[in-house]
Specification:
The structure holds 2 protein chains of 2 kinds.
Chain A: E1 3-7, E2 19-24, E3 27-34, E4 41-45, E5 49-50, E6 56-62, E7 70-79, E8 96-108, E9 111-112, E10 116-117, E11 128-132, E12 136-149, H1 161-167, E13 180-182, E14 186-192, E15 200-209
Antiparallel strand pairs in A: 2-3, 4-10, 4-15, 5-15, 6-11, 6-14, 7-13, 7-15, 8-12, 8-14, 9-11
Chain B: E1 16-24, E2 27-32, E3 34-36, E4 41-49, E5 56-62, E6 69-79, E7 89-101, E8 104-105, E9 108-110, E10 121-125, E11 128-141, H1 153-159, E12 172-174, E13 178-184, E14 196-205
Antiparallel strand pairs in B: 1-2, 4-9, 4-14, 5-10, 5-13, 6-12, 6-14, 7-11, 7-13, 8-10
The chains are: A mainly beta, B mainly beta.
């Protein structure tokens, strides 16, 4: 791949596109600067919640008629059980458990949680419903399951599972992958499936409002 | 998606835009080089501190009237307990703040000294603050980092920025009069042993 260039007309008198000038071989060349723009970004957290079968840890719903599209950029399921818990008789026991990330088209009840903007100049995320412990949701397809256990996070450093889990978004992302997008009237929930009542989890979602 | 190209006018006499030349589908094409512009970048290290409930391991405030925007690009919690302790599970919270009182000053060291000092910003540890919303929690323990490689949690944590980031995600932004703190929440037996340092990486925009 030889170095090369294309040569533009001499500078005009209009706006100035930023470049950096380098000498490659015998040629003085320009490399144009590129800026990557972020969209208004919001953190939404359930806060630590005790486990329970079918509990909706976090429901996110882009209200009907909102006129906006919201993308879920990150979704972290964080083990928040700080104190030791012991195996007992199910459901009050420690064990492997399943969460599901599901589509929803409506949500009822629950405790409102605020999407906090990463940049306050972006203002609040309007026409959007975010709740933990919803009474119910109109549930749709399962997007995927997430498997873990409800054991405490561990008081020593060789129990690294919880650290991995909270540091890695459960949502798949990458170049040319479309983010999970909530059109008006669409939503998503994180739901506990397994019937255990010990332990606690905190769900953190990172949303962007598309402009 | 078939390969394609846009054909430019014949080279003119002005500046030269750098490319690399490749042959794709029997066509000799140019791929343009770009540069990603970096902002003045500062590392703020709050040294190892002993845990205590409500302790602010780091607090950073972009002062009112500073005329600049500070973006928090990275935030690392480093377990710094080198001697054995009997720890417990701990919760920390990343919170917004609007003022800082007291504490020990933290120096903001520029990645490039030609960017100069970071002025108009207060950075401390062990201070108090006027706290606002909780952005999110971070869960860990205060056990020592371990004398063998079988205790990888501290290493994973120290290498993982707590802040979500990615293309099109806006960074945690501190406008004038805004700040953040990183605060220990958990109390109780075992919550006051060990130690943690906090590293923040900030950029300044004007």
């Amino acid at each position: 791949m030889p170095n090369s260039y294309f040569q533009i007309p001499p500078d005009g008198s209009g706006k100035k596109l930023r470049t950096r000038e380098r000498v490659i071989g015998d040629d003085t060349i320009q490399e144009q600067y590129l800026a990557i723009g972020g969209n208004p970004t919001y953190y939404v957290r359930s806060g630590p919640l005790a486990c329970a079968a079918n509990k909706l840890f976090l429901c996110l719903f882009n209200n009907v008629g909102s006129g906006q599209s919201v993308r879920i950029r990150r979704l972290f399921i964080q083990n928040s059980q700080l104190l030791a818990i012991a195996s007992g008789t199910a459901p009050a026991t420690v064990g492997m458990m399943e969460f599901q990330v599901k589509k929803i088209t409506g949500v009822t009840g629950g405790t409102a949680v605020t999407p906090n903007p990463a940049d306050t100049t972006d203002g609040a995320l309007a026409s959007f419903t975010a709740v933990h412990t919803a009474t119910s949701a109109v549930e749709g397809n399962v997007l995927y399951s997430w498997y873990t256990n409800n054991d405490e996070i561990g008081a020593i450093g060789n129990f690294s599972q919880a650290m991995y889990q909270q540091a890695i978004s459960s949502l798949i992302d990458g170049w040319e992958l479309r983010e999970y997008e909530l059109q008006p009237g669409e939503g998503l929930c994180v739901k506990q499936i397994t019937n255990y009542t010990l332990g606690a989890f905190d769900v953190l979602a990172v949303l962007t409002k598309e402009l | 998606m078939p390969e394609s190209y846009v054909q430019l006018p014949v080279d003119s006499t002005g500046k030269k835009m750098r490319t690399r030349q490749r042959v794709i589908s029997a066509q000799t094409v140019e791929e343009q080089f770009i540069a990603l512009g970096a902002e003045p970048t500062y590392m703020l290290w709050a040294p190892a501190q002993t845990p205590a409930q409500n302790k602010l391991f780091m607090a950073v405030l972009n002062q009112a009237g500073s005329g600049q925007v500070i973006r928090v690009r990275k935030l690392f919690l480093s377990n710094a307990a080198l001697a054995a302790v009997a720890g417990i599970g701990l919760e920390f919270q990343l919170k917004r703040i609007s003022a800082i009182a007291g504490g020990t000053a933290i120096t903001a060291n520029p990645s490039d000294t030609t960017d100069g000092a970071l002025t108009g910003v207060t950075a401390t540890y062990g201070s108090t603050a006027t706290e606002g919303v909780t952005l999110f929690s971070w869960y860990t323990n205060n056990d020592e980092i371990g004398v063998t490689g079988g205790f990888p949690q501290a290493t994973i944590q120290a290498l993982t920025s707590l802040l979500p980031e990615g293309p099109e995600i806006r960074e945690l932004t501190l406008n004038p009069g805004e700040g953040f703190c990183f605060k220990q929440i958990t109390s109780g037996t075992g919550s006051t042993v060990g130690s943690f340092g906090v590293l923040a990486v900030l950029t300044r925009s004007t």
